[in-house]
Structures are given as structure tokens and as C-alpha cells.
Write a structure and sequence with these properties.
With 135 residues, the protein is of the alpha+beta class. It has a single domain, classed as Dna Ligase, domain 1, CATH 3.30.1490. Helix content is 24%, strand content 31%. It has three helices and eight strands, in the order αβαββββββαβ. The strands form two sheets. Strands 4, 5, 6, 7 and 8 form a five-stranded antiparallel beta sheet that branches. A three-stranded antiparallel beta sheet has the order 1-3-2, covered by helices on one side. Strand 2 and strand 3 form a beta hairpin. It is globular and about 45 Å long. The protein starts with 5 loop residues before the first helix and ends with a strand.
Length: 135
């Protein structure tokens, strides 16, 4: 059954899997989800991100997210919140990005230059749709 908010589903899966101490989750692939996962990996919130292609159906891809835990076994992601939703899109210009937990967290944005973290968006001097916040 198709979802009306696949990115929101992905974020919920991450939150639920970390609550159960899973090491890996698999979900249907999309470029947006892969971009969000790539930003989370580059910011140190995920261990790794892999995409696999089904042998029989070449068009069917699966996204594998490897979750990250610290040495005590606690999840690296304390909280992950969806900001822009299908019913209420949230856009921010570069001047209104703000900081998540005074720089300890990260915002993920969809910009004209791709999916970027708030730090990268400031460097590139672009704003965009605020997808989620992570800390």
C-alpha cells in the first residue's frame, strides 16, 4: 500500500528500530530517502547506507540503513522530528534556518542543490524545504 509520507515513514522506522536496538533496517528506495540518509550518514548519525538492486526486477531497489550506537549501546540519534509534512510544507530561507540545539543537532533541507544539512546549506548560501531535524 503506498504511503502519503514515505520520508516520515523512514524517520519513524529509524526511531522504532533504535528503540528495539536493531543494527539495520531495510526499506523501499527513493532518491529523496537516499539523500536524507546520506546527510544523516555524513553528519555521523548513521553507520552506513547501502542500496541494493533486485536481481529479477532491476527497477526494484532497497535502501539499507545501518544504525549507529555509542560504546555504551545508546543510540546516537536522541530525537528525530519531521518538520515539513505533505499537508503543511515548511520552507526556510538562508536567514531563517536557525540552529538545532545550538549547533549540536542538524536540520536536513531539500534545496535546489540537492539534499543538504543546514551547515552545508549555509555554505552554499541556499534555503529550501525543511525536511527534518535530528539531535
Amino acid at each position: 500500500m503506498p504511503s502519503s509520507d514515505p520520508v516520515g515513514d523512514m524517520l519513524a522506522m529509524i526511531k522504532n528500530a533504535q528503540g528495539r536496538r536493531h543494527r539495520r533496517i531495510s526499506l523501499p528506495h527513493s532518491r529523496l530517502k537516499e539523500g536524507v540518509a546520506g546527510v544523516l550518514r555524513s553528519e555521523g548519525y548513521l553507520e552506513d547506507v547501502k542500496v541494493t538492486v533486485d536481481e529479477e526486477r532491476k527497477y526494484l531497489k532497497t535502501l539499507h540503513l545501518f544504525l549507529k550506537y555509542d560504546s555504551d549501546g545508546a543510540a546516537v540519534i536522541t530525537e528525530i522530528k519531521r518538520v515539513s509534512k505533505p499537508g503543511c510544507r515548511v520552507f526556510r530561507g538562508i536567514g531563517r534556518l536557525g540552529r538545532v540545539l545550538d549547533g549540536l543537532g542538524v536540520s536536513v533541507l531539500s534545496t535546489s542543490k540537492g539534499i543538504l544539512s543546514d551547515r552545508q546549506a549555509r555554505k552554499e548560501r541556499v534555503g529550501g524545504e525543511l525536511i527534518c531535524r535530528v539531535w
